[in-house]
Amino acid sequence: MNPFARLRDLDTFQRHVVAASFLGWTLDAFDFFLLVMMLPTLAHTFAVGVPAVAVAITLTLAMRPLGALIFGRLADRYGRRPVLMADIILFSVLATLAAASTSLAMLLVLRALFGIAMGGEWGLGAALTMESIPAEARGVVSGLLQEGYAFGYLLAAAAYFGLFAWIGWRGMFLLGLLPALLVLYVRRHVPESPVWSARRERVGRRPSGGWRKLAPRFLFLVLLMTAFNFFSHGSQDLYPTFLQQQRHFSVQQTGLLTMVLNVGAILGGLFFGAASERIGRRRAIVIAALLALPAIPLWVWAPTPLLLGVGAFALQFMVQGAWGVVPAHINELSPDGVRGTLPGFAYQTGNLIAASTAPLLSMLALRQHGDYAGVLAIFVAGIALLVAAITALGPEARGTRFGSGTGA
């Protein structure tokens, strides 16, 4: 059966859940990537180097595990839906407040607080979605859900392309208030997770125990998500800076190429997420990661903007193709009682370990006389091999039944 046909089989409530979770991650990523697009501008505004402003990315990523733990534990106890609404409001407000920054220090503090709220959204949305849909739809929905991140990057690039010259960096941050409108949709149309509701009937709101027994699984997931986060942030966060600083592209060219790579990311996530339903989660990830390798030279060394766009499209098709399997894969590896916490906390802890990617790579590039291309190519090639190796050696629980009382 065509895996994309599974989307047509979802009922109205399931479609609302998928839509809300997709939009939540989209708008969260939109707020995150607004800053990524403006690193050189902010460096000029605050009279510092790009690595100093890139610390804001590090702080956002570093604080995300705290948000995943706080909001995940709340969601396991009080439900996915109400905690998700509170989290969306919080990250929207904090993203918007960055527009009022009068110094780099103030911006860094606000982006760190934004990271706490951002850290909660992915785990809540993924758990709510995966617990609300049929097992056979998880692969294709996983790809769709995860590529909300790429779609958010695409929207940020489009906003940068079309609005930055008119509203400046403060106006761009003010756009961060838009996600708060999503809460109205969630409140009206999105039901609570049936798996969480059924479990609450059985055991009430007692906190889940057994975390010590989950330590090996948690450590594996952290290792896996660390490699994945190096993969995505290493290939995405400094790419606009590379285009502007090394290739000397304009704002419009940078925005356009960033949109192209995110179209590739979205299509890759959908393709490999759906494929994982047929060939397995691990195999889909390994194939995508290894196929990223031949795209790297065109991604950074192509002689023309057109070929550079082809390379960016191809690389992100594979990077986010691997990522498209992640929501289904790690939620299936998590027991029912901690599914609000374990996947998101592992994901964001991996983010914490990979949080220094942007400033580290920017410093290495400066030491190589501004050679972002060489630094990015070597880094992404090594990480692609690491993602493939860790995934191949790990477990898989494709199709596991949720709500059985034990989980994976």
What does this structure look like?
With 408 residues, the chain is mainly α. It has one domain (5-393): MFS general substrate transporter like domains (Growth Hormone, Chain: A, Up-down Bundle). It contains 20 helices and no strands. It has helices at 5-9, 12-37, 39-45, 50-78, 80-97, 104-130, 138-146, 148-174, 182-189, 194-203, 215-236, 239-245, 251-279, 281-291, 296-301, 305-323, 326-332, 342-353, 357-367, 372-393. Helix 19 crosses helix 20 (372-393). The longest helix is centred in the first third of the chain and has 29 residues, at 50-78. The chain is globular. The mean pLDDT is 89.
What is this entry, summarized?
The protein has 20 helices and no strands. The chain has 408 residues and is an all-alpha fold. The chain starts with a helix and ends in a 15-residue tail after the last helix.
Using brief descriptors, characterize the structure shown:
408 residues; mainly alpha; Growth Hormone, Chain: A
Count up the helices: 20
What is the CATH homologous superfamily assignment?
MFS general substrate transporter like domains
Low-confidence stretches: none
- The arrangement of helices and strands along the chain is HHHHHHHHHHHHHHHHHHHH
- Counting DSSP E segments of at least 2 residues, the number of strands comes to 0
Here the CATH topology equals Growth Hormone, Chain: A
What is the CATH top level name? Mainly Alpha
The value of Rg in angstroms is 20 Å
